[in-house]
Amino acid sequence: MQGEDFVLTIDRWIKDIDQFHFDQLCIQPKDDSWSLGQVCIHLIASTHYFFSQIPICTSNNEDADKAMSKNAISMFQNNAFPDIIIKGPKSNDDTRQSTSKEEIITSFEKLKMDVISLTKQISNSNYNGKTKHPGLHYFNAHEWLQFAFMHFKHHSRQKNRIEAYLKTKE
Fold first, then answer.
1. Where are the domains of the chain?
2. What Rg, from alpha-carbon coordinates, does the chain have?
3. Are 141 and 58 in contact (CB under 8 A)?
């Protein structure tokens, strides 16, 4: 995975989000599902966590001998999450609504800058440490970046479903 692909993916999200009014970003298609704004807030928060692991991995060789889970190996080989709806941890139920469209766009723009910076950091590092993912075991810095990219791609399917719903409400 190249950082450029990730930046282009975030650009696509920004373009897609920008076509909706803020009130549309807060509409939940079902009572037990997220709005488009909540999907964005989830992506922003999760990506911050994934990105926070990268400087740790590039600063030491700790846990370099540890492996990712079999499920993770399959995901990385396919460069994608499974094409299923995944019920995340209970904490996802508390995902807040965005406060504004500008909050989302500004946060996505910052993530793009982080991708560029972290890609350079990874390529300049002589270390290959790993940190533990809560369910998929150990990732190195490059894998955390790839995982964040795969996570965005996974939620693109959800974004497309919500956008289709919102277009029926116009």
1. 3-25+35-81+97-168
2. 17
3. yes
DSSP reduced 3-state for 130:
strand
Residue type, 101: K
DSSP category for residue 91: G
Tell me how far apart the alpha carbons of residues 144 and 49 are, in angstroms, rounded to a whole number.
Answer: 10
Spatial separation of the C-alpha atoms in residues 62 and 53, rounded to whole Å: 12
**d(C-alpha 109, C-alpha 130), whole Å:** 27
CA distance 149 to 7: 9
What is the token pair recorded at 120?
Answer: 């350079």
Predicted pLDDT of residue 2: 75
> Which SS3 state, helix, strand or coil, does residue 139 take?
strand
Joined together, the tokens standing for residue 133 give 């993912």
pTM of the model: 0.94
* pLDDT tens digits along 34-77: 999 999 999 999 999 999 999 999 999 999 999 999 999 999 99
